[in-house]
Amino acid sequence: MPALLKRFARDKAALLGAGLLGLLVIAAIFAPWLAPHPGDVADFHIERRLQAPAAAALFGTDRMGSDIFSRLLFGARITLMLAAIAVGSALVIGVPIGLVAGYYKNWVSDALMRIAEIFLAVPQIVLAIAIAQTLGPSIENVILALSLTYWPFWARLVYAETRSMRNEVFIESAVALGASPWRVIVLHILPNIASPIIVRTSIGMGATILTAATLGFLGLGAPPPTPEWGRMIAESREYLPEAWWYALAPGIAIFLTVLGFNLFGDGLRDILDPRTRRSV
Predict the structure, then answer these.
(1) Count of alpha carbons within 13 Å of 208, Cβ hemisphere only?
(2) N or C: which end of the chain has fewer CB within 10 A?
(3) Where, by residue number, does the polypeptide cross the bilayer (predicted)?
């Protein structure tokens, strides 16, 4: 473990990603204390409406007169919560399906992967939009839409890794010694394929945040006046280009968050997966 940490510490891009994610977590946890105006992120202040960035409002104010910086900090909470629950739900669905389908060689495993392929045949964003539009705009429905459309990516990854691991000598030895299939899957296969799952989860968090922001931009996410980054960009369209700061701040927040998860995931892949490990 110390050797892996040292290798990770020498990867400047991975450290940048970890730093960005650290700032995001700090912003989400300490939003009530870091926000200059924590009590008015959902209130109207007509006298402060669409003010440019200044000392009183570092990122300016929005159409309601609320401080955009404060709304970004509270929006970080929503973003992290939404992505964590959606990705966690997709893992709970996809990983067991991939393990079962990869270990067993029967019609059940074939049927499970055919179902996953049906979901993968449609672009995730299109399917997520369709589900969210059917269910109606809310954070809960966005999480459900993302979970239902994202699990096949983990199922396919775990399926492929389990298939290759299934023929390893130590797996065949465990089976020959009388180990049950579930014991082999849980104690032998799953720990040995954990690395690609962790890497895929990190990168998947960034993709999930970007998709959630897209749904919010289309009006399918959290209803107003919830400080959700995608909706903030959507609300700013009619005030461009005069109120340029309105769209710029949440756009940069989304960009840096997705970049952080991607850089961090690439760094994890380099140190955890010997097939793609590079010298850093």
Answers:
(1) 32
(2) N
(3) 12-35, 78-103, 115-136, 142-159, 203-223, 243-265
Please tell me the distance from the alpha carbon of residue 213 to that of residue 187, in angstroms, as a whole number: 38
Give the tokens for residue 34.
Answer: 């870091």
Asked if 232 and 62 count as a contact pair (C-beta separation under 8 A), the reply is yes
Say if CB 220 and CB 133 are below 8 A apart.
yes
3-state helix, strand, coil in the chain (%, to 5): 75, 0, 25
Q: Tell me the domain boundaries of the chain.
A: 2-33+61-272
For residue 188, give the DSSP letter: I
**CATH, range 2-33+61-272:** 1.10.3720.10
Helix (H) or strand (E) holding 196: helix 194-217
pLDDT tens digits for range 120-168: 888 888 888 998 888 888 888 899 999 888 899 999 999 998 988 888 8
Q: Is 5 exposed, middle or buried (0-12, 13-18, 19+ CB in 10 A)?
A: exposed
